[in-house]
Write a structure and sequence with these properties.
Alpha-Beta Plaits, 321 residues, 2 domains, 8-stranded mixed β-sheet, 11 helices, TIM Barrel
Amino acid sequence: MPSAEKKTIPLMHDAGVIFNIQPYSVHDGPGIRDVVFFKGCTLACRWCSNPESQASGPEISHNVNRCLGYADCGLCIKACPSGSITPTAVNLPTVNRVSCLSCGFCSRACPAKALELIGRKITVDELCDTIHQNDSFYVHSDGGVTLGGGEPLMQPAFAAALFLRLGEEGIHRAVATAGHVPWDNLRSVCAHVDLLLYDIKHADSVMHKKYTGSGNERILENLQRVSAEWPRLPIWIRTPVIPGFNDTTEAISAIAALVTGLPNVRRLELLAYHRFGVGKYAQLGREYNGPAYPEVSAERMLSLRECAAVVEEAYRTVHGG
């Protein structure tokens, strides 16, 4: 299986690689927000719903359900400068992920939009131009901009430069991170953040490593350091609820116990697992390695949210409001 980390491109502090800008989000911080999705991730979660975020550089997605077939079209084969797109016995082209240059020529030639280049380099100026199209929504809803991914703190210089600009313009800034990055990456961006959305997936490091590829020691240490250095920076802990991994009251209560008492942790948000991203894996030439997780029932989420509520209750007890 091709590595998700094959493609990289050099970056300046005023440019980065993103794969989507989602406007009008109401789930990633207060108010109505633009969410900017960064390419690249430091974890390998089995259930990942954004596999297009895992590789740090652009890559080709091929939706065979849209493809016209090379017998009737074949424009992608002719457009590919590296010969990485070849015909198969079933009248569908296939992409050689090893030799593919991720140049996007094939996607531009494809009339059915079956081929798509996921990820693009963008400058701070270009990104701000797009963000400013939704200024009125930020003003009237107390919203702003959230950086997500992937792991946005893999591109700390770009994230910090963008946030410095947005801060000068009075736009609320949030970053969603799994925290599994060098401390200097986190520290350089937190200096320009108004809200930190911080993932904690499991309190047990062995379980964390089994399902994400890495232990949680760095994640928990970074959270402690952020809380100590910026005790007034609001932090919302977020936990994806995954069946068979952390969908028990014991697992959620253990996460709550880890973060309760940190001076700026205001809530623990639980995000129900969904299967929306499973079909993306084949389009990227990768296999979905996660089990066939069922979606979490509303009743189960209600029960788990009662466990998570102790974090917000503890914060209100100490700080009021």
